[in-house]
Amino acid sequence: MKFFRSDSVPVSSEHHRYTLRGILKGQHGAVACIAAHPLGTFVASGGEAGTKIWHLPTEKMIPGPTGASDRGTTTAMVWLTRPDDEEEGLAYGTEHGFLCIWKRKKDGEEASQRDMNYDIAIDETHQFTEIYCDRLASGESATEVSAMAYDVNSGQLAIVHRAEAVHQFLIDVGMIPRVIKSVTIVKHWPQAVAFGQVGVHGPELWSFGREDGVMRVSTKSKQNVHE
User: Fold this and answer.
1) How far apart are CA 11 and CA 17, in angstroms?
2) Domain of 212: which CATH number?
3) Rounded CA separation 22/3 (Å)
4) Measured over all CA atoms, what is the biggest interatomic distance in the chain, rounded to whole angstroms?
5) CA separation for the pair 176, 155 (Å, rounded)
6) Nearest to 174 by CA among 123, 112, 76, 106
7) Which structural domain, as residue segments, surrounds residue 211?
8) What is the CA radius of gyration of the chain?
9) Number of domains making up the chain
10) How far is Cα 203 from Cα 155, in angstroms, rounded to an integer?
11) Residue 218 burial (CB < 10 Å; 0-12/13-18/19+)?
12) Could you say which residues of the chain have pLDDT below 70?
């Protein structure tokens, strides 16, 4: 995976606005999603081989706490940060409907033996541990997580499935998701999700249909449809 930086010197990009900064190695197979940390310290990618994280200043891959196993291909991901403290993590969804959260270790937390034996020297505070993983739905409804969104101000996480499902969580101080609502919208197959303007009932949740182009706007108390 290649990444670029903005530069006034025309070197490699088609419009001469960016230069190649480095190549990140470690993700095998197709890449289904990428998420960059808001501060530019980390970048994560997801695909058939699961979820991978790199520390950008050193261009080193960080050992992840788990592989893909039976959760399937990683299909969507988003960074979780807070404006008032240093707690941060990565949430990702998979093709089999799993939601998993990796939390970055803080100063003083011990690294696992697996991490200490890793062949790349990584600062312990750059390592992650899995604190949550659960299947959001089962049976026929346990379909691929198609998109995720996070609102840093409210600490809310939104997740949509390809099978008419929309989930909204509050990420607590321990980075554990607490359900705000989980609904099935008949004949609505969401492809993307985002948080909109904030009202008296909190931030609006926008879900965009894959087949019909319909955007559904919902809050805690109501739901509207926009063609």
Assistant:
1) 8
2) 2.130.10.10
3) 6
4) 54
5) 11
6) 106
7) 2-226
8) 19
9) 1
10) 10
11) buried
12) 1-16, 68, 107-125, 138-142, 199-201, 219-227
Among residues 65, 80, 52, 60, which one has the least CA distance to residue 129?
65
Closest CA to 158 of 196, 122, 127, 129: 196
Alpha helices in 19-139 (DSSP H): 113-116
User: What's the pLDDT score for residue 130?
Assistant: 95
Closest CA to 102 of 48, 162, 50: 50
Give how far Cα 218 sits from Cα of 61, 136, 193, Å.
Answer: 38, 20, 11
Cα angle for residues 215, 75, 146 (degrees, 5° grid): 20
For 19, the token pair is 């230069």
Give residues with Cβ within 8 angstroms of 38, minimum separation 6: 79, 81, 152
Task: Tell me what pLDDT residue 79 has.
Answer: 98
Residue 193's beta-bridge partner residues?
207
Q: What is the DSSP string of 18-33?
A: EEEEEE-----S-EEE
Q: Which two tokens stand for residue 21?
A: 């900064």
Structure tokens at 5: 């930086």
